[in-house]
Design a protein that fits this description.
This protein has two domains: 1-42; 43-85. The chain has helices at residues 3-24, 27-36, 44-84. With 85 residues, the chain is an all-alpha fold.
């Protein structure tokens, strides 16, 4: 590799390192570091709320299945009544 070409990369690498330092000290950088370190997973209130929401979704699914079964039954009864007439 040409020795002059290496000199071109020195400012680029310096800018990248400087940008990384600025980013790491910003609020977004701190939030990302906190997330990567697993700090976000330690929030038990959010976990409890998420479990409650999952339970609500399961209850809604069960109610929807029951409603669909009742609708199917009603459709069969109406279809049977039309055939007899």
């Amino acid at each position: 590799m040409n020795p002059g070409a290496v000199g071109v990369f020195i400012p680029i690498i310096g800018l990248l390192i400087g940008g990384f330092v600025v980013f790491s000290r910003s609020e977004i950088g701190r939030a990302l570091a906190h997330r990567i370190s697993g700090g976000a997973a330690a929030n038990s209130a959010v976990d409890d709320e998420l479990r409650a929401l999952h339970g609500d979704i399961e209850a809604l699914r069960a109610e929807l299945m029951e409603t669909q079964e009742r609708l199917d039954f009603t459709e069969r009864m109406l279809a049977a009544g039309k055939k007899e007439s």
